[in-house]
Write a structure and sequence with these properties.
eight-stranded parallel barrel, four-stranded antiparallel sheet, 27% helix
Length: 563
């Protein structure tokens, strides 16, 4: 039985679908199927005087009364319209949606694009911080759990106050699962791999034909890692399991302020020192997480009662003690964690507190890359605190205030992932030209183990394939009682279904041993994943060995081995 609120929503959606089908059918025609074509990674985070043309020329949104792909649609209420009616959507398709939004009646507002499929509620498919003085770009997407006959895409301002919303250049582009996978594979080929040619020659420079060339990857360029906890110390089996798989690490809790200074002046760095020694001994890069956490519940108890003056002194001491001790050791630092959702420090020290944190951290360790780190930016578009435009705006504000902010951290605590939306958010963040890292990836444990595995594979494939992503960290530190949301193995290091996914992808994303004979030109060519390699050449009774690296680049890498 529906609650009164649910029943009302059902009636509203039913009315909307019926009204739009009756009144807009003469304006909108939907193409039959997805056209061939490649995904458009372009996006915009600047507000523009005029909207750009519709992506994919509008996709399956077609205006019968005009060839102009701009196609303005306007509402005076800002509640349920403007809207597009679309027919015969199916669950085996990835849909990407985009458009340009402008307001009247308010200087700025958060506008949400929502999908109402077959009178069965609504789902958020994209958001934008729109303005009245220029056009703002909304990009999102969705998949469906079941096919629909009639659906409506409509727009709301988040607080539901009346205002005029205009959308231009609307586009809805479908992609089959095979097309989506093709896009991923093509990006991997271009961004994660490179062609290389081994030239075999004798000491006089004469090419050697028919030599056996064997190439083996010894290290990967792309950072793929996991959180670890103090449970890894003294556990040889866990340590071996970890270094056999990962080339990056982050400490789960051991560097957080409540761990390193549980009482004022009582500094405890013995555990993170040991963990750092472990990762250093195995040449594993490590992220620093975190200097501050805006969540009051994660703030040391003794800090909560400090006066503003004493708090300012304490935070400066915290930065100096932490980053002086570990200067040059951590590749990244998450400076002020989750500041889009919480404001413990800024509420007490003022709106410039975070910019000050970044400035002091930069002085303390100028070689570390300083990050924002936030959740629910890519995981969902229903969290109004952490929309992609809110993230971009905060980052730009910090940089304008002088913060040396060089990295975008996306936690990635997913429930059921919306992969087209995830890609759209990454597209918008990519416009900032900063490294993007997934910093804490897991799948909610409300799902069974097999479903977690399916969803994790979707997320990891999309993250690895996106051209703007520079690294991926799993939030899977192992404890005897389990993990935060998702464990890769049980306590005895037996793989769980998500562990099988990770192992399979790690195997897929590396160059296995490539072997062949040098051709008539004395050359052997192969495509390899970026990283470090050793090449062995055998010819007759002689052999030679050399090392080389494949770094990012469009040109073929040429290596000469003398034998």
């Amino acid at each position: 039985m529906r609650s009164g609120s649910s029943a009302l929503k059902h009636v509203v959606v039913l009315f909307l679908v019926s009204w739009m089908a009756a009144h807009c059918g003469n304006e909108l025609v939907v193409a039959a199927g997805p056209p061939d074509g490649w995904y458009d990674y372009s996006a915009y985070t600047d507000c523009r005087g005029q909207p750009e043309p519709a992506q994919y020329n509008g996709g399956i949104l077609r205006y019968s009364n005009s060839d102009d792909p701009t196609g303005y649609k306007t509402t005076e209420t800002g509640v349920l319209s403007p809207a597009f009616v679309v027919y015969d959507l199916n669950k085996t398709t990835m849909y990407t949606f985009s458009g340009w939004i402008k307001l009247e009646g308010s200087s700025s507002a958060l506008v949400t694009a929502r999908l109402a499929p077959d009178n069965s509620g609504t789902k958020c498919i994209g958001t934008v911080l729109a303005r009245s003085d220029c056009w703002s770009f909304l990009k999102g997407g969705f998949t469906l759990d079941w096919p629909t006959q009639t659906s409506v895409i409509f727009f709301q301002n988040a607080d539901r106050t009346p205002m005029k919303i205009t959308i231009a250049s609307g586009s809805l582009q479908p992609f089959t699962m095979d097309q989506w996978s093709m896009h991923q594979k093509d990006t991997i080929r271009k961004r994660r791999k490179r062609m290389a040619t081994i030239h075999v020659a004798d000491p006089h420079g004469t090419r050697v034909v028919g030599a056996t060339v064997s190439v083996q990857q010894t290290a990967k360029d792309f950072p793929f890692g996991s959180a670890i906890a103090s449970t890894i110390l003294g556990n040889d089996a866990y340590q071996k399991w970890f270094v056999d798989r990962f080339n990056a690490a982050v400490f789960e809790d051991e560097l957080k302020w409540y761990s390193t200074e549980p009482a004022s002046g009582l500094l405890r760095f013995d555990v993170p020192d040991q963990m750092l020694a472990f990762v250093r001994s195995h040449r594993v890069m490590v992220r620093g997480h975190n200097i501050f956490w805006e969540n009051q519940d994660a703030t040391p108890r003794w800090v909560k009662g400090l006066s503003p003056e004493d708090l300012r002194s304490a935070v400066n001491t915290r930065i100096q003690s932490l980053m002086t001790r570990y200067r040059g050791e951590f590749a990244h630092w998450d400076v002020n964690n989750e500041m889009l959702h919480y404001n413990f420090y800024e509420q007490r020290l003022g709106p410039n507190a975070t910019a000050d944190f970044f400035a002091v951290a930069q002085d303390a360790d100028p070689l570390a890359t300083l990050f924002m780190n936030e959740y629910n930016v890519v995981e969902t578009c229903d969290d109004v605190s952490s929309t992609v435009d809110a993230y971009v705006a905060r980052l730009k504000d910090l940089r304008a205030a002088g913060a040396v902010l060089e990295g975008i951290g996306l936690e990635g605590h997913f429930s059921k992932p919306n992969i087209p939306y995830m890609r759209a958010v990454l597209d918008k963040l990519a416009t900032l030209n900063l490294p993007i890292w997934f910093t804490e990836v897991d799948i909610n444990n409300k799902f069974d183990a097999q479903t977690q595995a399916v969803y994790l594979e979707q997320v990891l494939r999309e993250a690895y394939a996106h051209p703007a992503v520079s690294g991926v960290m799993l939030w899977t530190a192992l404890h005897q009682g389990g993990c935060y949301q998702m464990c890769l193995t049980d306590w005895n290091l037996n793989n769980l279904p998500v562990g099988d996914v990770v192992d399979r992808l790690l195997q897929e994303w590396q160059t296995g041993q490539a072997t062949g004979l040098s051709d008539a030109h004395g050359a052997y060519s192969f495509s390899g994943y970026l990283g470090e390699f050793v090449v062995t050449v055998n010819y007759g009774n002689t052999s030679a060995q050399s090392t080389f690296s494949l770094s990012p680049g469009d040109e073929t890498r040429h290596i000469t081995v003398q034998i």
